[in-house]
Structure formats: C-alpha cells, structure tokens
Amino acid sequence: MKPIALAIVEDDPIIRESLRTFLGGDPQFELVYSAVSMEDFLQTLQQDERVSPSVLLLDIQLPGQSGIEGIPSIKKLRPGIDIIMLTTFEESDKIFAALCAGACSYLSKRVSLITIRDAVLTVHRGGSYMSPSIARKVVEHFAPIPKKEDGPLTPRQQEIVDCIVNGLSYKMTADKLGISLDTVRTHIKHIYHVLEINSKGELIRRSLDKNK
Amino acid sequence: MKPIALAIVEDDPIIRESLRTFLGGDPQFELVYSAVSMEDFLQTLQQDERVSPSVLLLDIQLPGQSGIEGIPSIKKLRPGIDIIMLTTFEESDKIFAALCAGACSYLSKRVSLITIRDAVLTVHRGGSYMSPSIARKVVEHFAPIPKKEDGPLTPRQQEIVDCIVNGLSYKMTADKLGISLDTVRTHIKHIYHVLEINSKGELIRRSLDKNK
DNA sequence: TATCGCCTCCCATCAAGATGTGATAACGGC
DNA sequence: GCCGTTATCACATCTTGATGGGAGGCGATA
Q: Which B residues between 108 and 127 have a beta carbon under 7 A from any strand C atom?
C-alpha cells in the first residue's frame, strides 16, 4: 500500500516536530512537506506541482494568514486535498468557519498523537474524525434547541403565508382560499405586524430558512 | 460513579438482545428500558415518570412510527435525554433529519459493540460520536463542494441580486450600490430575462436554495 | 476602427403590494 | 352578557415592482 502523502503547516516548533517525528516515522505516511506559515505553504504549492499531499494537518492559528483564511487558496491549488484542522481552543465560530471553508476534520491539539494518526487514516479512507466535544458542537448546530416556534401565526395566517411563499399573488391566493382579495390583504397586514417585517421578500426569506 | 441510565428502542431482536447483554452486563450502565417500537416507548415515558434514561439508543428504522419521527415526542417528554441513532444505511437525508430533530450522535449498526459502548460514554460526557463516514457526510454539508456555479450573472448583476435577496428594496439597493433606481431596474430586467423568471419571489427562492 | 457586452441612466405605464381606517360576524371564556 | 381573538370584507392612497422603449460611456477584441 502506498504511503499517504502528508503535509503539515504548524508554527509551534514543538508540536510540529513531534508530529513530524511520530508520523514521519510511520511507514504508512510520507511526509512530503512541512511549513510554519500559510504563505510559505501556498508559495510552495504554486511553484512546485509535485508537492501534492493528500492530507494536510493545518494549524488553525498561524502568524500572518490564518489556517482558515488559507483553506480556499489551498483548495484552489489542490482541490482533492483533505484538510484536518488542529486547534487549541474549541470555538464554535472557528469550527464552522473552517468546515464551511472546506476542512473535513477538526481536532484538538490536546489529543494524543495516536488519535491524530488515526484521524489521518480515517480521513484518507474518506471518513472524517472530530473530537467528541467538537462533534457535539456541530450536531448542536443542526438542532439549536428545537425552537419549534412555528411562528406565532394562526392557522389561517399560515395558509396565506404558504400560498405567498409558493409564488402566488394576493389575487391567486384569494382565489385558492376562496376569500376576497381584501381579506388576503388584511391577513398579510396582520402577519407583517406580528412578524415585524414589511415586505414580501422578507416574508419569503423568513419562511424559507425557517423550514430548512 | 452512578451508572448511566440507558434505554434501547430497537425492533430487531438479535441486535436488541446483543446490546442488552453487552451493555446491560457492564456496571457502567443501567438498562432502564428496552422497547421494540416507538409507540411502546412513548407510552411508557408518558405513564411512568420514573423511566428517565439519560441516553437512548434508537433504531432509525422501526415498524410504525420511525425513530426520526419519534424524536420530537421523546424530547418533549424527556428534554434532557441524549439520543444516539443506530442505522443500517447511511443516507444523507435521514442523517440530517435525525440531527435536526435533536439526535446528538449517529452511528452505523455495523460498528462493534465496544464502539457503541464508547459512543454512549462519550455522549454522556457531553460529547458526540459519529461513524467516520457519517461524520464526513456531515462536514460535506457545510462545504457542498464549493460549486462556484455563480449563475450566468455578471458580477454586478450578482451584487444586485444579493441586495434584493437580503431584503433591500430597489431604492435601498440603488443607494447602497451608489447607482440610480432606474439602473437597478434595468439590471433586474436583464437578470429576469437571463434567469427566465419574472418576480422577486422567484429570484429570492432561487438564490436561497442555490447557496445552500 | 467597429462591434459587442456591460454598466449606467431616463421616461412611461400598468400591475401588485403596503398601509390605514372602518365594519360585521362567529366563537370561547370569564 | 361583555370582551378578546380570528376571520371576513370594503375603500382609499401611496409605494414598489415588472416591462417596454431609448441612449450614452467604456473596455475588450476581432
């Protein structure tokens, strides 16, 4: 089995060297590059096509350009690379910023070298590893406290909203619900007051990202 | 240390019994309930306040009400419960449905009993465990392969669209971009032609589910 | 240079939506 | 019975949006 081409971008010399020693000494890996800054790494990627790691261990906090900021550039130069973020702190916004930018794994530097090694193997197999506490933050993102606040709207009002959101005009809505145009208007007026909005656009947006 | 109160809802007798034997025999856990259907489980929760597991192992596919469908009801009866989904197939939509409903962990039934045990412990500590392949699906949700399909719109047109989608009126858009109201109108006109739509509503909808 | 795409602006018109005032009626709870 | 909520309808007014036409400036490129 071919060793996994690995790159490390980490400014802390102690962590970098320990990763280097541990992973570099493992025949499963081939350490193709290690850098202390994003700028250095990007420059190398640009200048030397042969530097093409399949997995990158990337410190999230770097002097100069941060790890997160650099992800898009890295992805542009090497689209297939799998990025594992290494982090000292578990800040939700950083986590999501990194994942949105294209990182596929995120783990704390406090975990053991063995865990990091396993994460690399997992990622290379097409999986993803996240520290449990980080994974929890991620899942909480999906269910941010089941705010089943399905709007303070009455059933009738909700019907009107559904029609509007589905692209119907006031007139079409009136026809569909068998009420008059003015009644639709009145409902809309109330809805706007209740939701504290003042345009169809806002209504549509609110409904759409409430139900998704 | 007090044992972790555990419940299992799983219709497959083989899996249920093996979980029961393995986890029930571990002094770290106390198996407080095991059911074969969501209906049974909900009824018990409703009738007996004392049945209050802190972690639930829940099969995603059950006869009658599915695991996913039942999550909201469970959460309503026992808000603090941590739910670990057990699944045979790794379908993205099911995964997200479960997470959105409030599950905090998601793993394949193919993993070892030891892994399941560790997942329970992890979850009880406030973490979350996900099978690597499932975790990968989750992270891909955040960065859906930067399909920079930024539509057939010119940069300027895209700016106008962004403003409109963010709830600005034509007039506000004009002010923000420092151009005249008529110019905004002209752009919108062109955009509508290009995208083959004819209302602000459609524009908003299209932009919204393009970027997500 | 001439043409083309993009951005800018203006005019005009009609349809649609936003907002206010006011009114009637059914229903449930106190 | 009175009150609050919800739903219904009407009329009036003003703003916004949709769509048509025309036109000048600018940069790229054939």
A: none
Whether the pLDDT of residue A131 is over 90: the answer is no
d(CA A97, CA B12): 40
Residue A64 has pLDDT above 50, yes or no: yes
- CA gap B105, B107 in Å, rounded: 7
pLDDT on residue A150: 53
B88: tokens are 């045979």
Measured CA to CA, the distance from residue B160 to residue B172 in angstroms comes to 11
Question: Is A76:A27 a contact under the CB 8 Å cutoff?
Answer: no
B182 has a chain A CB within 8 A of its CB:
no
Q: Which of A124, A51, A133 is nearest to A90 (CA)?
A: A133
Contacting A residues, span 14-43, partner chain B, CB-CB under 8 Å:
none
Dist. CA B118–CA B124, nearest whole Å? 10
Q: What secondary structure letter does DSSP report for B9?
A: E
